[in-house]
Amino acid sequence: MGKGIAVLVSLANSSFGDLAGLFAERDFDAEEVILIEEPLVAAQHSHNKNDAVVCGFCFRYVGSIQLQIQRKLEAPETQSCCCHEEEDDEEDHHRHGVSSEEALVLLKGDGFSLPHGDKFLLPEVVKCSGGCSEIYCSKSCAQRAWHDHHSLLCDGVSQHRDELVLFKEFADETNDIFHLASKVAFACFFVLRLCFTFSVQLIAKVMLRTKKLSESSGVTDRNTLLEAWKPFAMGEKRLWWEAVALPDDVDPLEEASFRSQIKELAEASLSQLKAALWEPEFAPLFSLEIYGSIIGMFELNNLDVVVASPVENYFLYIQDLEPALKEQTEQITRPLFEALGEKYASFCQGSGFFALHSCINHSCEPNAKAFKRDEDINGNAVIIATRKIMKGEQIFTSYIEEEDLSYTERQAMLSDYGFACECTKCFREKNQS
Ligand SMILES: C[S@@+](CC[C@H](N)C(=O)[O-])C[C@H]1O[C@@H](n2cnc3c(N)ncnc32)[C@H](O)[C@@H]1O
């Protein structure tokens, strides 16, 4: 880290025609970090909010381990991502021995203090200054969220609160991708704030792929607004209802009807977004064409945002204590652990759009991969080299679990991403077959 510009986005020389690719600007050793990138926009999955109480901007866990456990225990069973949703309370109680209600009484009891909680301190919760339920890990995250998009998406201050709530509920019920789209609508003002660990000069290079973007930020005239929209809109220019892969359970004969339903969903979401956020100067941004391209771009380029759970680490720590101390500690923590069941290990999950990461092409013999180290405790994407990479080489990750798959199986999986693979391995194997 800290060795200067490490990667460069180039439109030329990518193996795939005039598409963009990411290239090493210096040599990298195996396991070395190539890139740490903050998302341009990201959102925690709505169903995950009780599993992980995180900063609404950087996705770092906040509060305390006690608060995190409490929220998991308070969550309705169906909201948890990793529990058996079908089990009724009684069966669940029987399985774990202690019910969530019993564990909550213990946790909220006077003077209760979680043993060894001080080894897992988390940043204090900073509430949204607009008075909504959004929380942050610091004032600076709160301010950045406010300036990026939240000043317009905060239902504490919005003049169209009811419409905004309807838009958000619709996104929760149908597709989280609409939350991202609404953030884009306002993040476009601040697109030039792209942060990147190695060098801010990269911003200019990222903008290469958007052809030409005004270098000024904060200007709110209509043309600048449209310019600022481009980094998102030009990521991958396919309309959502055309780009989305046909689900396995949809009969290919029903494809047209499936795609028109997806389009209707986008239209419904857009009309709610307009109702909630209408300002005359935003009008150009609210065409179905642009909205569809933005969501389509997310569909094709979204990356999972994943942050490991400190609650899981806490219980692993207890597990590893020396026997006498462990026994003493578990007198207190065992009921909590039993009541949590599998939820003890559920972690923060969301999705986001990463400008540089979205330029990385796929290879069935990749030289890099996404990898979170212990110190990566927020929603940034981290890419590490899986072998030595020489300066000038293109950086490739694999979009699929390709290792044990045949050429044909790999093509079938990649068709969900909308392309036939032209990597060197596929080129070799195609010619052999
Ligand atoms: C996430 S983008 C990568 C950046 C892309 N090259 C660009 O110019 O925006 C994924 C797209 O790149 C192209 N692509 C990536 N890997 C490829 C591969 N192995 N073979 C053919 N096309 C590939 C496909 O068009 C795919 O939809």
UniProtKB/TrEMBL annotation:
GO terms for cellular component: nucleus. SUPFAM superfamilies: SET domain. CDD domains: SET_SMYD. Gene3D superfamilies: SET domain. It comes from the Eukaryota. GO terms for biological process: epigenetic regulation of gene expression. Residues 3-400 form the SET domain. One of its GO terms (molecular function) is histone H3K36 methyltransferase activity. InterPro entries: ATXR2-like, SET_dom, SET_dom_sf. This is SET domain-containing protein.
